[in-house]
Amino acid sequence: MVQSNSSDLDVAVCEVGLRDGLQMFNTPFPTAEKLAWIQAERAAGVREIEVTSFVPPKLVPQFVDAREVVQGALDTPGLTVVALVPNLKGAERAIELGVHRLNYVMSVSRTHNLKNVRREREESLADFKRIADLIRTLPEDRRPSLLGGLSSALGCGYEGRVPVADVRHWAMAYAEAGADEIMIADTVGYADPVHVKEAFRAVMADVGSLPVSAHFHDTRGLGLANAAAALECGVRRFDASLAGLGGCQFVPAATGNIVMDDLCFMLDAMGMRTGVDLEKLVAVREIVARNLPSTPLYGALARAGLPVNYRTPAAAA
Ligand code: COA
Ligand code: ZN
């Protein structure tokens, strides 16, 4: 299996701002600046970045440069290159380029799946199986890992509350279809820590040794509390975006992911090794700021700075 360079870390963090964040913007973020962002964030210690999305460029023009971005990202030493794929065609494009990890998107909520990828969940799952089959035909050293993403799993902008039983159903369906990992996503920021614990504990018990990762949005201010709750359940891989960029054009009032800089600070302060240098990470925000000058950037660490005499507990241990 490609990747898995994180054995010396307690928690893996994956930057998703280049995909989840940028998909909201119709003005293109220059390819060279995307690559500068990727390289700077890798230099700050981030080892996994979701660099693009293999969707039709007509639908999301921001990703017209998917090929160039992936090629540049693959030249960045020590980086696991992740890409979102919504169907078999997207997976074929990503595999051809040598992407390390495919983040397949399907929503637990039927309505959101129809809006987002224009198909029933059963059709999404059938395509996921085709992708798993395709991967098995590749030589072992060229196989990407296949992540089964469950969007709108903890709430839906159209349907409201999403039953935990449905999350369990689709997580098991992914597991049986050959997922290497399941990702539970609170796409619209509806979750709270109690809900998170209920859903993650149930799914983690169901899928056994299969890793379960978390993708939270901070729409209602509970993003980091939810991450802490997932951490308590045993989750050790989190998506986040620098400065909290993010959202989904198919979800009314969707806002950004949890802030990468604040997530890393929380984990670091809790004594968990992320591999990230907090000051270098905060400095990368400048690349986002200069390219999106009228976009608000979020983040408490960037606003307040590190506490006086702060020492990384994990480094001291
Ligand atoms: N990459 C590039 N082109 C693709 C593609 C992909 N992943 N999937 C389909 N296409 C092309 C088809 O070849 C076809 O092209 P043609 O008109 O030249 O023949 C066209 O797009 C329509 O194909 P179809 O299979 O009918 O797709 P659709 O119109 O039903 O759309 C999705 C389905 C999944 C491609 C689309 O809904 C999508 O990309 N959704 C993701 C939206 C998103 O980014 N959401 C945010 C992430 S959470
Ligand atoms: Zn998201």
**Helical amount among residues, as a percent range?**
40-55%
Bound molecules: coenzyme A, zinc ion
Low-confidence stretches: 1-5
Kindly state the number of beta strands.
8
Strand content: 5-15%
CATH fold node name: TIM Barrel
Written overview of the protein:
Helices cover 42% and strands 14% of the residues. The chain is built from 13 helices and eight strands. An eight-stranded parallel beta barrel has the order 1-2-3-4-5-6-7-8, surrounded by nine helices. Helix 4 (88-97) links the parallel strand 3 and strand 4. The longest helix is centred in the middle third of the chain and has 16 residues, at 121-136. The two termini are 31 Å apart.
Furnish the topology, listing elements before pairings.
Blueprint: E1 12-15, H1 17-21, H2 31-43, E2 48-53, H3 66-74, E3 80-85, H4 88-97, E4 101-107, H5 110-117, H6 121-136, E5 145-151, H7 164-177, E6 181-186, H8 193-207, E7 212-216, H9 223-233, E8 237-240, H10 260-269, H11 278-291, H12 300-304, H13 313-316
Parallel strand pairs: 1-2, 1-8, 2-3, 3-4, 4-5, 5-6, 6-7, 7-8
Helix pairs in contact: 2-3, 2-11, 4-6, 7-8, 8-9
The protein binds coenzyme A and zinc ion.
